[in-house]
Protein: Serine hydrolase
Organism: Streptomyces rectiviolaceus
Amino acid sequence: MKTPIKGIRRASAVIVTTGAVLAGGALTTPAHAAALPKPSIAAKGGFVMNNGTGKTLFTKAADTRRSTGSTTKIMTAKVVLSQPNLNLNSKVKIEKAYSDYIVRNTASSARLIVGDKVTVRQLLYGLMLPSGCDAAYALADKFGKGTTRSARVKSFIGKMNTQARSLGLTNTHFDSFDGIGGAGNYSTPRDLTKLASSAMKSSTFRTVVKTKSTKQKVTTKSGGYRYMSWSNTNNLLSSYSGAIGVKTGSGPQAKYCLVFAATRNGKTVIGTVLTSTSATNRTKDAKKLMDYGFKK
């Protein structure tokens, strides 16, 4: 009987020794790796995904509806770029109504001049870089349908909502072409990110939103020309390596918003922060989330 007992003791010793080796960390598995800490952001809502795979990388109140400010203009641009037989070089006459609208709403402006003729492509730059509400109005007037300006604007906003439904953005609705709307203008971090991801499939959109600044030659009322200079409100383009877009937003209800995207080593992360506390903090929030997204 003594021999079996000795055998058991030896086996026990082996087990103990093996346990000691494991405890000492000589053998490790991915399960023992420390989890990547989730970043803390000032924004009330946030979402990040891998643009290539669609995989969710971060969420914070990602499906809570909030005011979107000028990030609405991503949809404005997408509707324009989705028009059949679109001619980006066709010219649009700048009407006094667009200028009056800016003054009336104390809105962000591309400083378009009444009587000038500006191409659709140029209006997209004026829309997305300085966040021109006058450019948004001009595009809505151009691409909406109807015999009156108000009818055309209503038609264009209808197209924005149709586009939202076609993209499956169930928590998104627009009541304006630029974000200066009421309670009927809202989206979520997840929906806005999906919208931006879809918009980024357009090479024209990608080119516009990654542009830091541009100087555009437009035709004046007298047939001459002038240059319009626009700078991008998205300072990530100058402060975050690999940043490729996409749009800032702000407003009394929206506070500070940012839809962002960056590419590093072939991986693109794209996301949104809504209702951040300042322009500085929305940028910090976006940087934290992109850093996190690239590590995931």
